[in-house]
Amino acid sequence: MMRKRIAIDMDEVIADVTPKFLDLYEDRYGKRLKREEYWGKKIYQINGAVELRETLQDKGFFADLPVIPESQEGIRELMEHYDVFITTAAMEFRSSFEDKYDWLKVHFPFIHWKNIVFCGDKSILRAEYMIDDHAKNLRTFQGKGLLYTATHNIHETEFTRVNNWAEVMAFFRKELAV
Amino acid sequence: MMRKRIAIDMDEVIADVTPKFLDLYEDRYGKRLKREEYWGKKIYQINGAVELRETLQDKGFFADLPVIPESQEGIRELMEHYDVFITTAAMEFRSSFEDKYDWLKVHFPFIHWKNIVFCGDKSILRAEYMIDDHAKNLRTFQGKGLLYTATHNIHETEFTRVNNWAEVMAFFRKELAV
């Protein structure tokens, strides 16, 4: 029997972008944002900080992001039961390809290159599950979508929400128990 | 109504890899292969020329490939009726990402980055049609697969075959007429 597939996003699901944006904001505006100041939005939507988003185009931006806690152990466990694909909307950022590829090699060496996808519009993906922080990606998905909590999506109510990897694993352990 | 999607491979479908392998073979072995010598196999399967395949890892390999005739006009016409995605198994070759991206920008500037996919195992793709030179990719595909003729696949009989872009367009004009 073919194993079910899980499509897992990178940024804000296994790679933490927030600390870098907080650093960039602080460098530019001389102020460390507190959680209540950025919670509910993208950091580059604050005070016209939209030019901060341009740094996503810089070589190296995605190279040194921290790993989201427990995502490595979680994915390794999921791979015992599912075909796991890392599916990231890298195409907007030409300079991100090698950084993201290398980052996966370092932090997720157990993920085969066959299971990595750089895409744009995620409606092209076929899987049974998708874990993503963008509701728009879950909306065009035909399987079961899990919305991974990120500061910009806290008001979304349309999808099953997972706040951290412990909750991701609880969801799939329940699925497997059925 | 959502438009149907066509997933179109790059190498040997819109980008011609064969001339470069013929050059490499000639450089190495001092002999220009004739069509009857390589037809029916991959060039790097001839006379132990397997090390030629290593050149796929070189920066620049994919940068200057010729465009397959009529693929540009064909894709532009298909885009009037379908959502076209370029889906290439780039993941095996880290050094190919930027080359392939730039090549598409130059030769297919009308294809949005949202419609480009770098992947490995193509079973992750969801589309109504796939045009690919590898039968293995069509075998795991749930839509209608078209096998684009390449020297290594001439003995395949499992899929609808298209020998050139004129035949691709004839197929889709018939689909649209139904």
Low-confidence stretches of chain A: none
The largest interface is: A-B, 28 and 28 residues
Structural class computed from helices and strand pairing of chain A: alpha/beta
* Radius of gyration based on Cα positions of chain A: 16 Å
Q: What is the 3D form of chain A? A: globular
The CATH homologous superfamily of the largest domain in chain A = HAD superfamily/HAD-like
* CATH third-level topology of the largest domain in chain A: Rossmann fold
Beta-strand percentage range of chain A: 5-15%
State the order of secondary-structure elements of chain A, H for helix, E for strand.
EHHHEHEEHEEH
Oligomer: homodimer
Largest sheet of chain A, in brief, is: 6 strands, parallel
The CATH architecture term of the largest domain in chain A is 3-Layer(aba) Sandwich
Indicate the percent of residues in helices of chain A: 25-40%
CATH C-level name of the largest domain in chain A: Alpha Beta
